[in-house]
Design a protein that fits this description.
The protein contains 8 helices and no strands. It has helices at residues 2-21, 42-45, 52-68, 78-87, 93-96, 102-111, 123-139, 141-149. Helix 1 (2-21) runs antiparallel to helix 7 (123-139) and helix 7 (123-139) packs across helix 8. Residues 18-28, 146-167 and 169-174 have low confidence and may be disordered.
Length: 174
Amino acid sequence: LEFRRVLFRSLAAESLDALGTTAEVQQTQEGAILGTPRYMSPEQALGKPLDQRSDLFSLGVVLYELTTGQLPFGGSNFAEILNNIVHAQPTAIARLNYDVPPELERITLKCLQKLPDRRYQTARELMVDLRSLARELEHGPAAFASATLGRVEPMVSIAGNRGGIAADPFSLEK
């Protein structure tokens, strides 16, 4: 369990760094194929219009790489990589690393959906699932289920910490 906590906290830090720096990167112009090929979304590889869901795909590539040690879409040249991003499915994470929680695999693969409408629509939606997973890993599935089903108000506010509760590893405040 400690390995999972360390892995998950590492993933969380990397994910938040990626989400936090998105605004600093110059936006890609429509129709131009710019960027690191292995981290491109299918729509970026095809030169289609981009939005925040393209960034969430790229974050999914990072999550996949952090959990498996490999990229989800390989290739020996630029064209092959782009073809795999657009058409190939990544190997199941559980086949490459059986220590990864199934929920983290589900979250990662949702980020890697080929169609933007099937991905997380916003970074906030992704953060909700990552926070839920963090709670489940911290307190166990039974505590997570009872807290989720019987909860009347949010456990932790997005704006910060409620009195006496340990700092949330996914807090948007630093």
